[in-house]
Amino acid sequence: MISIEGLKVEFGVKPLFTDVSFVINPNDRIALVGKNGAGKSTMLKILCGLQKPTAGTVSIPNDCTIGYLPQVMKISDDTTVREETRKAFADTTKLQARLEKMQQEMADRTDYESDSYAKLIETFTQEHERFMMMGGENYEAEMERTLVGLGFTRDDFDRPTKEFSGGWRMRIELAKILLRHPDVLLLDEPTIHLDIVRIQWLVQFLQQSAKAVVLVSHDRAFINNVTNRTLEITCGHVEDYRVKYDEYVVLRKERREQQLRAYENQQKEIADTKAFIERFRYQATKAVQVQQRIRQLEKIVPIEVDEVDNSAMHLKFPPCLRSGDYPVICDDVRKDYGTHTIFDHVTFTIKRGEKVAFVGKNGEGKSTLVKCIMGEIPFTGKLKIGHNVQIGYFAQNQAQLLDENKTIYQTIDDVATGEMRLKINDLLGAFMFGGETSEKYVKVLSGGERSRLAMIRLLLEPVNLLILDEPTNHLDMPSKDVLKEAIKAFDGTAIIVSHDREFLDGLVSKVYEFGGGKVVEHLGGIYDYLRAHHAETIEESLTPNPSPKEDGNEMSHNSEAQKEKVQSSPLPNGDGQGSEISYEQRKALRKKISKAEKAVKESEKKIATMEARIKELDKLLMDPKNASNMELVTEYTSVKTALDAENDHWFELSAQLEELKQ
After folding, report:
1. Could you tell me where the beta strands, DSSP code E, fall in 379-464?
2. Cβ-proximal residues to 620 (8 Å cutoff; 6+ apart), any chain
């Protein structure tokens, strides 16, 4: 499908990779892996034609369509969710308009016997057949199914996209790409803005509906469930493993051990040869042997060993001025977008030195409240920023705010002042941007590298209130650990918006839960919060769970709070208005949800069984001796029909489940 030959990319003195060749076949599910900065995002940009290689060719058939989801994207804000998503069907809607125009022309004309009228009918028939092959008028239903699968409710469809956070707008872009059904999907960190339920939906979609897929992700479970082939960018070239990610990890370890043994043997051979040359260089009787050894040494091709990335950024926030005792005080804060209320009656106080977490599903108002605290958007109620508070803000879209046409060094030099200008190289080195790397342009940096660069900018001015909105999205595990330790050692106050429980563990002493238009305060760390919700993950804690059982007539304070919260939660009724819901009603609703979840799982099991049988039949029918076996052909046809029907049934069940959870 796509052929890559002799690819070479240079950004500095040392090439990013050289002489790379591989082929992307139909139905390949490829995980593109490698250390940070190895060139994964660059490879995706080259495959979709956004970037040209220094040398080599990328051959793509004319009829091959490519869908590309980058880590960072400039997103339009002037349409509704439905209108923006409908852009995925631009060709279909244009064809539909053309058909309607021809239909009107046929109704208006009366020259039924003319050649031009016959030609019009023929053209209409051909175009109508093409329209039906493209999905006809079913595209609206497919669009709605995809948006619901990615977490939108039907009430969201007619809301302006500007009302949504960056994560939700990225979901719209993902929906548009998936709905185009391209021949090759290129996905760069597609799960960053998705919760566990949506990740599972995306896995299911890619397994059932996608053709060829090339993806970059730090989510090991995701790539292991989706991919069947692994391309590793290492030592400036690409190693092709025809296995899924877990098997690749084992094979890579074995290959590295072999490389180390071969490298050690070669180094011993080189050392022995050099020793012989030095020992007998000036002995005439050994002159021939010495020359032979010198030529032998020149011919040796050094064995490269896979680089192990032991580098780590060294992060320490500068000393800050002492702020007032209460850096943030919210009193009855409310934020509306038109008729849609994001949150209401938000009242809390953050004390100096506290590290707190904002958690909640995407779109529940975490980033919106941060913008209120920053004074970037209007709101109602009272929100007071304490005396002498200096805010340092790391936004979700921080990478988008960087000038892509500047180098790393220029980016920092532009904002550095005073003595810090003399320490720019030291600061860049601490963030793994030392040496010639500092001359790289921002536009060629990966998402993780851009996040690190944005973090440096945050360090250039001493602040006493840190607001970090999903700071770990593009960071690998070592970098997350370094950032976590730096925040723990930070003298000031910190607000961290994150879904990463491991990152928040031991870091925060208070959790603010966003949901249903309310903000609820939970004292204690993130695991105290999860225990109160009887949940293992933050995502699980944000979905309805059975209330904790009473122990005799006594309940803990947290349990009482949970029950009170359940009893006062609004439940949509038939006309869309909220009504009070009792504990018994909530219990009945959970029972329905449990039943719907069971039905979805049973459908998924049936699909898996039928898919396995299809694979078995494929292998059998590929054998020439079974070519005329009509029983196998009949079974294949019936199983394929049943599979298509079950897939449609799964979509219906999933939609019903989503409606119950809303």
Report:
1. 380-385, 391-394
2. 626, 629, 632
- Helix (H) / strand (E) containing 420: none
610 vs 124, 206, 208, 633, 635, CA distance in Å?
Answer: 39, 17, 12, 15, 11
CA angle, corner 515, sides to 78 and 526, nearest 5?
Answer: 120
Residue 512 has phi, psi (to 5 degrees) of -110, 120
Tokens of 486: 């730096």
pLDDT tens, 321-366? 888 899 999 999 999 888 888 999 999 999 999 999 999 887 788 8
Instruction: Report the alpha-carbon distance of residue 496 to residue 468 in Å, rounded.
Output: 5
What pLDDT shows up at residue 632?
Answer: 75
Reported as a pLDDT band with limits 50, 70 and 90, residue 569 is: very low
Q: Pick from 398, 423, 399, 424: which is nearest to 410 by CA?
A: 424
Cβ pair 486, 492 in contact under 8 A: no
Q: Averaged over 465-471, what is the pLDDT?
A: 88
pLDDT tens digit string along 127-179?
Answer: 887 777 766 667 788 888 899 888 888 888 888 888 887 778 888 889 999 98
Q: Which amino acid is at 70?
A: P
Counting DSSP H helices and E strands in the chain, the numbers are 21, 20
| β-strands 328-337, 380-385 pairing | antiparallel
**DSSP-derived 3-state class of residue 4:** strand
Q: Quote helix, strand, coil % in the chain, to nearest 5.
A: 50, 20, 30
CB-CB contact of 388 with 420 (8 Å): no
Question: What amino acid is encoded at 231 in this protein?
Answer: L
What torsion do the CA atoms of 420, 421, 425, 430 make, to the nearest 10 degrees? 20
Q: Give the Cα separation of 4 and 6 in Å (integer).
A: 7
pLDDT digits 0-9 by tens, 482-530: 788 888 888 899 999 988 888 898 899 999 999 888 999 999 988 888 8
Answer yes or no: is pLDDT of 399 > 80: no
Amino acid type, 131: F
Is 365 within 8 Å of 373 (Cβ atoms)?
no
Q: What is the pLDDT of residue 379?
A: 92
306's tokens: 């896979």
Ramachandran angles phi, psi of 184, nearest 5°: -130, 125
Overall size of the chain counted in residues: 662
Q: In whole angstroms, how large is the CA radius of gyration of the chain?
A: 30
How is residue 441 written in tokens? 């342009």
Instruction: Identify the CA nearest to 111 among candidates 102, 120, 103.
Output: 120
What's the pTM? 0.55
The letter for the amino acid at 232 is: E
Question: What Cα–Cα distance (Å) separates residue 14 from each residue in 42, 436, 499?
Answer: 15, 9, 37
Residue 505 amino acid letter: D
| Helix, strand or coil, per DSSP, at residue 338 | coil
Within 243-364, strands assigned E span 328-337, 340-350, 355-360
pLDDT above 90 covers a percentage of the chain that reads 14
Closest CA to 121 of 137, 133, 103: 103
Work out whether strand 465-469 and strand 493-497 pair parallel, antiparallel, or are unpaired: parallel
Distance CA 280, CA 294 (A): 12
CB of 294 within 8 A of CB of 278? no
Token pair in block for residue 391: 């805010």
**Of 203, 234, 194, 197, residue with least CA distance to 221:** 203
pLDDT of residue 449: 77
Ordered DSSP codes for 547-568: PPPPBTTB--HHHHHHHHHHHT
Could you tell me the end-to-end alpha-carbon distance of the chain, in angstroms, rounded to an integer?
42
